[in-house]
Each structure stands twice: as C-alpha cells, then as structure tokens.
Design goal:
Blueprint (H helix, E strand, L loop, with lengths): L1 H6 L3 H30 L2 H21 L7 H8 L4 H25 L1 H8 L3 H26 L3 H28 L7 H28 L5 H35 L2 H14 L3 H18 L6 H23 L1 H8 L2 H4 L5 H23 L3 H26 L3 H27 L9 H16 L1 H4 L3 H27 L1
C-alpha cells in the first residue's frame, strides 16, 4: 500500500516521506531495543551510554562548526556545478577541527576522563566519531537536496539495524563472560559505533577522493559566514536537551543518570508524532502565512496542538505501563518524573510553532536568543536544585526551562511580525497559551492518577477517543 502511494507522489514528496520514515524507523529501533538493554545492563551502565551521547552531541557542535546546519543546503544551490569540490573542502575544515579537539581530548584523557566521566577508551571512540561523522552528514544532506532517497534510505536503515544487532550481541556476549572484564557500557557503545563510524569513514574517503579539493577560500568563507552565527543556538539547544544528564552524572552518579535517561526517552516517545505533524504543517504555514488572520492556519494549529497535547497527556498517564515494557522495577520507582518531562516535551511543540515563523521571516538570531536564555536558566537551576532535592529536580528545572523557551519564542515571533508590518498574530496566542497550561496541569495530574488504576484507565480510554476525533478534524481542516 505504501509503495502504491509513493508511485503517485512527486519526487519531492517521495523524498520527504522516505526520509521521515527512515528517521522514525531509526529512532524507533532505540525504543524497541531498550527493554533488552535495561534488563541486561545496570542503570549505571545505561547512565554511561547516556553520558557519552550527551557529551558527543555538545562537543560535535563545536568540532563541526555547525556546518551541517541549514546553510549546507544553500551551499548546494550556490555551488551547483562544484558540489564535489565543496564537500571535500568543508570536510577538510571539519577534519582539522576534529583533529584539534579530538586529538586534544585523547592527549589530555588522563585529566579529561575523570572530569567528564568517560573512560579513555570512550574518549578515543568519541574523537574518531568527531573525525568521520561529518562525512556521513554531508553525504546524506546532499542526497536529500538532490532527492536521491533510495540509497540513503537503504544505508540509514541498514546501518541502524546492524548497529542495534551488534550492540545487543556485544552486551549479551560480555554479560555471559565476566572473565573478559569489559564494561557493558563500553561493549554496547563500541559495537554500535563500530558500525556507524565505520560507514562514516567510508564516506569520508569517498568524499575526499571524489572532491579532490581540500582548501578553497570561497567555500570556507561562504560556509563559515552561515554556520558560525548558528553555533551559539546549536550549543544552547544541545545544552538545554542534554545538560541535565551530564549534571546528574557529575553531581549524583551514573546509576541515577541511567534511570533519568530511560524515563526521559520514554516520555519523549510523542516527539516522533510531533516531528511528522510539524513537517506536514510547515509547507501549509509558509504558503499561507502572508495572509493576515488566515483562519485555516489558526484552526489547523489549534487542532494539531490539541492532538499532540492529548498524546502527551496519554503518555504521562500510561507511564507505569510504558516503563514496565521498556525497563524494570528499578526505573518504575522513579515514575513520578515522567509527568514533568512529558509536559516539557509538549512545550517543544509550542516553541517549534513560533520558531517556524522566525525561520520564514529569516530572523533565526531571535531563535538563538531564546535558546540561550532557556539553556542558561536550565544550568543555573540544576546547579541549585539537584544538590538540594536530588536528581529528580532536573525534570522540573527542564520543564521550567521549556516554559521560558516557549514564552520567549512567542515574544520574539511577535516582534518579528511587527517588524514586518503585520497587524494580527499568525496564531491564536491566547488559545495556545490556555492549551499549554491545561496540558501541563493534565500531565502533572498523572502523579495522582498513578495511585488509582481504574480511574486512570477510564480517562486514558476517553483520551484515545478524543485523539482520534481531533486527528480526523485536523486533517479535514488542513484540506479545506
């Protein structure tokens, strides 16, 4: 059925659909494999895995100079006849940065290791990833730009499956042979990234050999002018996303990081849905945004947000059942952290709606201002709250930070609209604000409902009916 639908689509829609499916599949594998890892690995080992991905996501922003941002697509258009040379040139730039930063981490690993909580072996693994991963990103972004989705889909899905299988096999092997004296976290990470980084290394060689140009002043100047202003936003976004796990590891311990990371991943399942909703809404928004007071935009945004709010509440209320499937009783003991995390996840949708406006009006610096403010607040609150109230406080500080991000994005979007001479807001801000407050209150009610299963199941059934009804209504609204 899916193949038949794809045949009738334009190449642009086919490409967007296939890349969305690839992303959802790859992320879904992480959720599907989670029950295996949480039942074999200790929470401390899970914590180290979370810590590695957190540090990598933050450090890679600097080492890549944010060159894999939206500016890359502009470069593909600007240097239409020189794409091979452009790729090898900017890959040389990221390689130099990776050698400096990654090499520094490896050379200073005796001091860096205790500071960031990762073993020297994992630091070396990270340094290799910093070197080769940009090649995969560059290649994949070009495939998207040129609508060549078949090979990219095959490699993305194939490597995701192979990496997951390799991780599971490695963990099972090491856990059954304790005489190997290998940590399960290192076995899992090494097996997973042996596949991911191995494929990226092949791409690194391919791009360098194909491009044959390692330095070009035009390419470097063009790319850096676009990417450097985005580094602040990218770092702030990553700090907001992962700093809680880094700080829990540093201030409390890896076991607590593992528990928090699993609960965060479970609470974020709804983001798969929001990614699809936002991707389908953006083209509709951009086509109609110049029409002030456009009823279709307002009606669609209200309905889509209502659907996502109901799903977020549903995940919060079904938290115990989700954790029983994904993890063990050790994680279930901290189930009350899921409601505030789920509420924060919902608020990312509010931020996205308003950042869409800022992107359209080319006011991305305003997005950066909001992200930096939220990230600074998040780190400051964690520094105070975690020592006083324990690692669970990070769930509430993250919720507070996402509230600040959403409010800030709305304020900056309003400013951008006024600068363009708009007299009316794009969305019905009052209704979205009321919906946000209602969603936060409803998700937090999950803490109480966890004590009464019968009432919780009945209300969840009602929510499912509402989700189906509003989804159908939202679809008809966007088609009208």
């Amino acid at each position: 059925m899916l193949r038949e639908k794809l045949k009738g689509m334009s190449v642009e829609v086919k490409s967007a659909t296939v890349y969305t499916l690839s992303s959802v599949f790859s992320r879904g594998l992480a959720i599907i494999s989670m029950p295996i890892f949480t039942r074999i690995m200790s929470s401390a080992d899970i914590g180290v895995v979370n810590l590695y991905t957190s540090w990598y996501s933050m450090i890679s922003i600097v080492s890549t100079l944010a060159l894999t941002s939206g500016g890359y697509s502009l470069a593909m258009k600007e240097f239409d006849g020189q794409r091979d040379a452009y790729e090898s040139s900017v890959l040389t730039l990221t390689t130099i940065m990776a050698l400096v930063i990654g090499g520094g981490l490896v050379l200073l690993s005796p001091w860096v290791s205790p500071a960031i909580g990762l073993s020297p072996q994992l630091i070396f693994l990270m340094a290799f990833g910093l070197l080769v991963m940009p090649a995969w990103d560059f290649w994949n972004l070009r495939q998207r730009f040129e609508y060549k989705y078949k090979l990219s889909f095959a490699l993305s899905v194939g490597s995701a499956v192979l990496a997951t299988v390799a991780s599971v096999v490695a963990v099972l092997l090491v856990s059954s042979q304790p005489e190997l004296n290998v940590k399960l976290s290192e076995a899992r990470l090494s097996a997973n990234y042996l596949v991911v980084y191995g494929l990226s290394a092949v791409m690194w060689i391919l791009l360098m050999v194909r491009g044959k140009r390692f330095y070009d002043r035009r390419f470097w100047k063009f790319s850096l002018n676009l990417s450097l202003p985005l580094i602040g936003y990218s770092i702030a976004s990553q700090v907001l996303s992962v700093s809680d796990r880094v700080m829990i590891s540093s201030m409390v311990g890896d076991a607590e990081t593992g528990v928090y990371g699993v609960l965060y991943s479970a609470s974020s399942i709804a983001l798969f849905l929001w990614s699809a909703i936002n991707a389908s809404f953006i083209p509709y928004l951009f086509r109609n945004i110049d029409t002030e007071g456009h009823r279709g935009i307002r009606r669609a945004s209200n309905l889509l947000l209502a659907v996502f709010a109901l799903v977020s509440v549903l995940i919060s209320w079904l938290g115990p059942e989700i954790i029983k499937v994904l993890a063990t009783d050790e994680y279930l003991a901290s189930i009350t952290l899921m409601p505030p995390i789920a509420a924060g996840v919902f608020l990312t949708s509010i931020s996205n709606l308003y950042s869409n406006i800022l992107v359209y009006y080319k006011k991305t610096k305003y997005i950066m201002f909001a992200a930096i403010a939220a990230a600074v607040v998040n780190v400051a609150l964690n520094l105070v709250a975690i020592p006083l109230f324990g690692y669970g406080a990070a769930a509430y500080t993250t919720l507070a930070s996402y509230i600040i991000l959403a409010v800030s994005q709305q304020a900056w979007a309003t400013k951008a609209c006024r600068e363009r001479g708009r007299m009316e807001p794009v969305y019905e801000d009052g209704k979205l604000g009321a919906l946000s407050l209602t969603c936060i209150a409803a998700t937090m009610a999950g803490i109480i409902l966890y004590q009464t299963n019968v009432l919780r199941y009945v209300t969840c059934a009602v929510l499912l009916v509402l989700v189906a009804f509003l989804s159908a209504k939202a679809k008809s609204s966007r088609e009208s």
